[in-house]
Amino acid sequence: MKKTKIISLILFIGVILILTSCLTGFFKRNYLPSEELIIAPDPDNSFQGTWMSVLPDGFMHVINGMNGEWYARMKRGDTFIWEKRIVYTIEENDNGYITSNNWPISVNNDTLTVEGMQYIRYDRWIEK
């Protein structure tokens, strides 16, 4: 009787671990943006690139040159899509940089900070 309970517990934990890893892989694959939303970084422009939210909360910035777009991940029917919500430009001011919709914006290595929220470069996000 005791042996059966131990084996059942081990099997239950194994099944939970397998399901968790499968769901994590499924989530990561279905979270990725389409190829046209992936902008390569530019060594001459620290802002340029595709930036994913640090937490998987469904936000992304795509910056090409000094023009940016902010996306939210939305569910449409049975699928998720990246929906463009805001378009902005990045301008320099006395306190650093700001977007045309008055969000303070800065880059420190591979971390983009916009309005206090942090984003990491798409290629770094994939590595996580």
What topology does this entry show?
Layout: H1 2-31, E1 49-53, E2 59-64, E3 67-76, E4 79-93, E5 96-99, E6 104-108, E7 111-114, E8 117-121, H2 122-127
Antiparallel strand pairs: 1-2, 1-8, 2-3, 3-4, 4-5, 5-6, 6-7, 7-8
CATH class of the largest domain: Mainly Beta
Largest sheet data: 8 strands, antiparallel, barrel
Oligomer: single chain
User: What is the number of independent domains?
Assistant: 2
CATH topology of the largest domain: Lipocalin
Proportion of residues in β-strands: 35-45%
Which strand order does the major sheet show? 1-2-3-4-5-6-7-8
Q: Mind telling me which CATH architecture of the largest domain this is?
A: Beta Barrel
Describe it.
- The chain is an alpha+beta fold.
- The chain contains two helices and eight strands, in the order H-E-E-E-E-E-E-E-E-H.
- It folds into two domains: 31 residues; 93 residues, Lipocalin.
- Helices cover 28% and strands 42% of the residues.
- It has an eight-stranded antiparallel β-barrel.
- A hairpin with a 2-residue loop joins strand 3 and strand 4.
- About 5% of the residues have low confidence.
